[in-house]
Amino acid sequence: MTRDDIQAWLDRYLDAWRTYDPQKIADLFSEDAEYRYHPWDEPERGRETIVRGWLEPAGNASDRDAPGSYDAHYEPYAVEGDRAVAVGWSRYTRPDGSFRALYHNVFLLRFDLEGRCRSFTEFFVEQPKRKDEPS
């Protein structure tokens, strides 16, 4: 995998998140992929389980991020063979468009020979609000 391959995958990841298209989500991951929303989580195992987890987080599709309520940018930080580390940010807004939260993200990624992710672990932290910033 090259940096360009990883960036293309990250761009498809963001498109899948924006659209919640089941096929776009499935195309990102290998059949036997493992996905962790936090490094300490037991992984979700298998493409179908991962797609279901995206479409119905915590068993409820209404918990998905609303279209237009977020923006994000991710890019490769390090690439070695089939492994990569990506960094970026996710910015969330309220229904009225005002700023709600900014998260800094790190993804640990491992890919199969077809360029599908077979291991995904996410780290994220919310940037604290400044003292002079409205809640």
Which features does this protein show?
6 strands, 135 residues, Nuclear Transport Factor 2, Chain: A, alpha+beta, six-stranded mixed beta sheet
Describe the structure.
By secondary structure, this protein is an alpha+beta fold. The protein has a single domain (3-126), classed as Nuclear Transport Factor 2, Chain: A (Roll). Helix content is 24%, strand content 41%. The protein contains three helices and six strands; from the N terminus they run ααββαββββ. It has a six-stranded mixed sheet. α1 (3-19) packs antiparallel against α2 (22-28). The relative contact order is 0.19.
Short description:
This protein is α+β, with helices and mostly antiparallel strands and 135 residues long. The protein has helices spanning 3-19, 22-28, 47-55; strands at 29-36, 44-45, 70-80, 83-93, 99-111, 117-126. It has one domain (3-126): Nuclear Transport Factor 2, Chain: A (Roll).
Give me the secondary-structure topology.
Blueprint: H1 3-19, H2 22-28, E1 29-36, E2 44-45, H3 47-55, E3 70-80, E4 83-93, E5 99-111, E6 117-126
Parallel strand pairs: 1-6
Antiparallel strand pairs: 1-2, 3-4, 4-5, 5-6
